[in-house]
Amino acid sequence: DAKTTQPNSMESNEEEPVHLPCNHSTISGTDYIHWYRQLPSQGPEYVIHGLTSNVNNRMASLAIAEDRKSSTLILHRATLRDAAVYYCIRHRDNYGQNFVFGPGTRLSVLP
Amino acid sequence: KAGVTQTPRYLIKTRGQQVTLSCSPISGHRSVSWYQQTPGQGLQFLFEYFSETQRNKGNFPGRFSGRQFSNSRSEMNVSTLELGDSALYLCASSLGIAGLATGELFFGEGSRLTVL
Fold it and tell me: Which of B42, B99, B106 has its CB closest to that of A101?
């Protein structure tokens, strides 16, 4: 049970913003939303995480809905290197490293 | 600073054999976890160690085991290999046990196991 729902695939043009949605309608109050991505032939890589407020870092922004039942990962300007599988994970804080990964969204970036 | 190092990167075994995979976490990281990735099942959690103690275990048979040493390095072992054990085995480390609200997992590049 991945506990989150994401589109199987998305496509974007290079240098355009990308909005990757994630549905987590059964989220509980202590669950954080984590995003990881996996580039071809590499292990997953941390992107961003948050609890309630929107979050920004050098890689991306995370917009969390007010009811926390959904969130959106925003890549402000897609590059070819951003082509990867993006995983949205809800995970209870203080619950260790046992993340439940779903199938994720495969993002293709077109030149 | 060096990342998570996994060895070997690739290996081929035959059914019935056993295999040991090694993971060296980032210096200073005390939590290590293992994941199996296959095309059919995706990424699945195997187990997690902190300070040489197994903290969590996923839903895998007893043929899958692991341990952590005092220097935080970890090994996982799969005995009596089956064809379905062919997978990419990923190790991840993090700074501490106190949740991931302020931390992140750092993954290695994985060990790709092929069972013939």
Answer: B42
